Amino acid sequence: GENVEQHPSTLSVQEGDSAVIKCTYSDSASNYFPWYKQELGKGPQLIIDIRSNVGEKKDQRIAVTLNKTAKHFSLHITETQPEDSAVYFCAASFFTGTSYGKLTFGQGTILTVHP
Amino acid sequence: ETGVTQSPTHLIKTRGQQVTLRCSSQSGHNTVSWYQQALGQGPQFIFQYYREEENGRGNFPPRFSGLQFPNYSSELNVNALELDDSALYLCASSPPPGHYGYTFGSGTRLTVV
What we know:
The complex is a heterodimer of chains A (115) and B (113).
Chain A: E1 4-7, E2 10-14, E3 19-25, E4 32-38, E5 45-51, E6 56-59, E7 62-67, E8 72-77, E9 86-92, E10 104-105, E11 109-114
Parallel strand pairs in A: 2-11
Antiparallel strand pairs in A: 1-3, 3-8, 4-5, 4-9, 6-7, 7-8, 9-10, 9-11
Chain B: E1 5-7, E2 10-13, E3 19-24, E4 31-37, E5 44-50, E6 53-57, E7 64-68, E8 74-78, E9 87-94, E10 103-104, E11 108-112
Parallel strand pairs in B: 2-11
Antiparallel strand pairs in B: 1-3, 3-8, 4-5, 4-9, 5-6, 7-8, 9-10, 9-11
């Protein structure tokens, strides 16, 4: 089955710096890669996602890149703010054409942005 | 959009008891999945329902079972609770084919003592 590895497990940055979180996946059939932000006591919130037919996607300060050949995808957050502090999860999934496959999550990255 | 609503938010049960957790899917979303998230870990897939049928299951024993109703709401049932079942249980709904994006509820925190 699919296996997703996420690094680093913790990341500490100063406000205004950039943060990068990296994930690798094992199943070349995976074709959908979302990123989630989880704050204390809440469920994961989708912040950005990318499909396998796209190499990069950007939404304001957040961007995701995908390298299908290397089976790598990364989350980039620019101009970090204290409210970006949370746990971030990457995930991989496969869309069959009629239904969605399960999400396989990475282990999570605790991001702390210091004012 | 009404979001994904889960109930109850917190629950304490004794080992050996049974529990039912509930989820109301986001409007228009006909697929619902359940995940278990242990403290400090990523969510683990339990099972998924599509049009009231289970269409995928993770590595969880049969004492974890579920239902999906015609209005796309869902239940997760766990029998013979064990201490290791203590976790945050998350429900996620996803839209019909052709659209992407899973929406998660805030979860039910289950503590087994």
